[in-house]
Amino acid sequence: MGNSIKQKQIIVAMTGASGAAYGLRLIQKLLTKDIYLHVLLSDAARIVLQQECDLLLPESAHETANVLAQHLGFNTDNIRCYEKYDWFSPAASGSSNIQQMVVIPCSMGTLAGIANGMSDQLIERAADVMIKERKQLILMPRETPLSAIHLEHMLKLSRLGVDLIPAMPGFYHRPESVSELVDFMVSRVLDHLHVKNEEAKRWGE
Q1: Does the pTM exceed 0.85?
Q2: Domain count, the chain
Q3: Residue 82 lies in a domain
Q4: In a domain, 3, yes or no
Q5: Are 7 and 190 in contact (CB under 8 A)?
Q6: Which residues touch 74 (CB under 8 Å, ≥6 apart)?
Q7: Residue 1 resides in a domain
Q8: Which pLDDT tens digit goes with each residue over 104-131?
Q9: Which of 42, 82, 197, 204 falls between 20 and 30 A from 57, CA-CA?
């Protein structure tokens, strides 16, 4: 797999909800911490990345890792991408040593699939593994308005121990750019991952 056995590993999945910048920024932040990333992208996520971030990704998972790393200013030593039906990936098995997963942003379709145990693609399967193995799963839902269906799925997942961090940036830190709003939400995710983030602006500081 290319990473050290003792190296911290995290799965970062991106789906087709608006807010691709959140996922890219989280990947960038985690790569600065020498964390090995297993990156999962839905087909819709690729479309949103091109629409919102002008990032056109190749079809090959290996080439996708190269383009992502280059776009974010890193080499590919600590990042690997997978095909959406790669059932042999570490993310698909409870026997792997991966303890944390983030779906950022999380579409309502992916949320529904996870809430109902529908593992049609690798993202849903990886999330299912996190839940059944009592590992940490973080979802960043991005939709508005929310229907009763969406809310019921979120409540169900919350009761199962899933961390829900909706894309709802605060404004008490007086943001002056979209980037600062993105960083606000990514900082909340990093806190829940227990990853040190020196740049976070905290209440009262």
Answers
A1: yes
A2: 1
A3: yes
A4: no
A5: no
A6: 28, 31
A7: no
A8: 999 999 999 999 999 999 999 999 999 9
A9: 197
For residue 3, the model assigns a pLDDT of 53
| Sign of the dihedral through C-alpha 109, 110, 111, 114 | positive
Asked which of 29-43, 92-106, 188-202 is least confident by mean pLDDT, the reply is: 188-202
Residue with tokens 């590993």: 9
In sequence order, the β-bridge partners of residue 40 are 13
3-state secondary structure of 20: helix
Domain holding 139: CATH number?
3.40.50.1950
And the tokens for 152? 């019921």
Residue pLDDT, tens place only, 167-184:
999 998 899 999 999 999
The whole-angstrom separation of Cα 84 and Cα 60 is 11
Tokens of 166: 């909706």
Helix axes 43-53, 20-31, angle to 10 degrees: 90
CB atoms < 10 A from the CB of 169, how many? 18
Q: What are the E-state strand segments in 60-99?
A: 79-81
Strand 36-41 to strand 136-141: parallel, antiparallel, or no bridges (unpaired)? unpaired
